[in-house]
Amino acid sequence: MRDLVLPGIPNIHSHAFQRAMAGLAERQLNPADSFWTWRELMYRFAGRIDPEAQYDIAAQLYVEMLEAGYTSVCEFHYLHHQPDGRPYADPAAMSRAIIAAARDTGIRLTLLPVLYMSGGFDGRALSERQRRFGHSVDAYLSLLSTLRAEQHESLRVGIALHSLRAVPADALAEVLSAIGDAVMPIHIHIAEQTAEVDDCIAVRGARPVEWLLANAPVDARWTLVHATHLSDSEMRGIAASKAVVALCPTTEANLGDGLFPLREFLALGGRIGIGSDSNVSVSPVEELRWLEYGQRLITRQRNVGSSAAQPSAGQNLFELAIAGGLQSCQQEGAARDHLVLDADAPALAGVTPETLHDRFVFAGNRPLLRSVSVAGRVVVENGRHAQAEAIARRYRGRLQALLTDS
Ligand code: ZN
User: Fold this and answer.
1) CA of 226 relative to ligand 1 center, distance in Å
2) Beta strands of 116-234 (E only): which ranges?
3) What is this structure's pTM?
4) Is residue 77 among the annotated active site residues?
């Protein structure tokens, strides 16, 4: 084979600032450590991030994404205000730091400013640490229209509803009616945790996905993030809606969320994409590999992600992640972004078109990319981003300061 080319991979769920706390939440504080105890640590860390820190962390993260083969990223962005909850002089300052990091590194960005209003299904006010995430519906819509006016070829702006627990039903209806039929990405965290499912049933009388499908016009504009805990009818409902499910296997494993019913969902024609979410791992290979391996461990079978039409598990999952990813990020032109693999890599010796995806997904641990092109520009050459060193230097200094400030 002469040219080993694969399409660029959309990363459809990321919280950039969390990259800086990767590996810092793995010590047991409590025998019942869970998502909820992790969240407390994450909030403490989030409290120290200002726009300059946001920029340095996002720039480092985006270099790592590009070097790993992600060519676009959906940034689910909720760190909006100052730590005490007051808006910055420019209310879009934190968003602009992310936009600048994407521009300076060359990754496509689908920015999803997050609406976050309450601290639980009962509508309680945000806690002190959540205050910098919060907006009224009016302030949120104003931020959205400011940012949407700045869209360009590689910057899309859509909306993110943090979760059903953080967005009251009337606010959700108000925002959806304000955007109407406008074509834009709409993302929401849903059914990640069993406690969230239980609370939703207790307060809204329905499971989260069941409630959402009954109360919102879920269609192909939508991305449901995680959707881990599903009944059969919820699974059928998502598949029929044509929404994409954002699967984030390394984060879901890291946080102990649970395992998505992949085989059943794919059998229904369900659409999926992958995301790096908390950014403990920045590797589409690891996401796709663990997407398949989680299923193998639970079913005690192999090649679960294959299909009757595509017997290669690697190729089937890769192609599903591209199709679902392009739908989710809504970036025109992203389908032309591409990766050129290193034909001299031992892990690719003797590769054929039939085995290329499986080699890429399952063989070894060394990065296999030679170059990465985004929007017609080569941003990674010989496996390295042109500004990797300068950006890493700034990041190291920034992290040192963040960690010693604590
Ligand atoms: Zn998330």
Assistant:
1) 8
2) 155-157, 159-161, 186-190, 222-226
3) 0.97
4) no
